[in-house]
Structure formats: structure tokens, C-alpha cells
Write a structure and sequence with these properties.
about 210 residues, about 20% strand
Length: about 210
């Protein structure tokens, strides 16, 4: 509010100077409508007409839609040629990392592999819920690994499937994970290659 008031005062001052310099007749004070009063007046009018309630309901519906059925990840295709490839998650530390008491735990330039500290305890399975065959494949993967899988949708309704399966189903919002792993085809399974401290990605073909 202070910044807004300063801008309005500056604008009002400059306007006053211009009027004084170019005045050819009687001048009168300029009264600008109060911004808050203007907003409140419009809100009251919308409320009286019932439009305000409609806008609120539309906002809630849009929010629910974005949660229930997020925007599908683009740029992916259904696996045609299965492939297996590996990813080294190591990264180079850009600057010293210290503990709260100042102890350096990683120096700038060090190469760190996160799997040395936090292993991938669950498989990650990416699939499109709109494809029944991929949904069946996901269910089979869950059974094969005795539930030690995080099912991740790239398209579909994660909350609906969570209720159906009675377990958490995730969604790769914006495709951040598939891009990071280099996944181009789905369904795809990400696992840890324990011996080599790297990730294995399998793009699988389904019937």
C-alpha cells in the first residue's frame, strides 16, 4: 500500500504541475475515485447480481479439474521399439555445501552421486492411464515387485486411480521427471542398478 500510495502521489504531483503550467482558465481540483471503494462497489454489484457466486463456483471447478485430471505430458509415444538404457545421476557441486555450523560436506567442483547416500528403494513406473493395456501392465509391475513401485501417470486421473487401487498414484506434472530420465516412450520402468550406482530405464512394449 505504501508503494502504491507513493506512485499515486507522484503521479498526482506531476499532473498538478502540468495543469498549473498550461491553465488558460479557472482550474478545479481533480478528484480521483478511491481505488478500494471502486473495487468494493464492483464486488457488491457482482454479489447482488449473483455473478460473484458463479465466478467463485467456476474457480473451484477449474481447480478441481486441474487436480482430478491434470494436463497430459506431451512429447511421449507408446513404446514401439523397446529399449534399455542407463543414467548416471552424478552431478558436479557448483559451490561449497556446508552444515548449519559451517562444516563443509561437499566442495565446489566435487562430483556427487546421490545413490551413494539415498538409494532408490522403489521402482518408478511411468504410464498413460488412457491406455487400458498400460494400466494392466502397471498392475502387473506392482504385483511383480510386491508393491515396491511408485506408479506415476503422464496422462489420466491420478486421484480416481488412487481411490480405485487404494494406494497413492502420482502424476508427472509438466513432464519434469520423464525429461530428467530421458524417457521418450511409455510405459517405462526406472530401477536402480545397485552394482554400478546408476539408474536403469526400460521402455516397455505392451500388447
Amino acid at each position: 500500500m505504501k508503494a502504491l500510495a507513493a506512485i499515486l502521489l507522484a503521479w498526482g504531483g506531476l499532473t498538478g504541475v502540468a495543469c498549473a503550467q498550461e491553465s488558460l482558465g479557472p482550474s478545479y481540483p481533480i478528484r480521483e475515485p478511491d481505488m478500494l471503494e471502486e473495487i468494493q462497489g464492483r464486488l457488491k454489484a457482482l454479489e447482488k447480481s449473483g455473478r460473484l457466486k458463479e465466478l467463485q463456483q467456476e474457480g473451484v471447478a477449474r481447480s478441481r479439474q486441474s487436480i482430478e485430471s491434470p494436463k497430459a505430458v506431451t512429447g511421449l509415444t507408446r513404446t514401439d521399439q523397446p529399449r534399455t538404457f542407463y543414467m548416471d545421476p552424478s552431478w558436479r557441486v557448483p559451490r561449497d555445501i556446508t552444515t548449519p555450523d559451517g562444516q563443509i560436506i561437499a566442495h565446489a567442483g566435487d562430483v556427487v552421486n546421490p545413490l551413494d547416500y539415498v538409494p532408490l528403494s522403489n521402482h518408478l513406473f511411468f504410464f498413460d492411464q488412457r491406455d487400458p493395456n498400460q494400466v494392466r501392465k502397471a498392475a502387473a509391475i506392482l504385483k511383480r515387485y510386491e508393491g515396491k513401485v511408485k506408479p506415476i501417470l503422464v496422462a489420466g486421473e491420478p486421484l480416481k486411480l488412487s481411490r480405485q487401487w487404494k494406494r497413492q498414484v502420482y502424476f508427472d506434472q509438466g513432464g519434469n521427471l520423464v525429461k530428467r530420465f530421458g524417457i521418450q516412450q511409455i510405459p517405462a520402468l526406472v530401477s536402480q542398478d545397485v552394482a554400478r550406482k546408476r539408474l536403469r530405464i526400460d521402455e516397455m512394449k505392451v500388447d
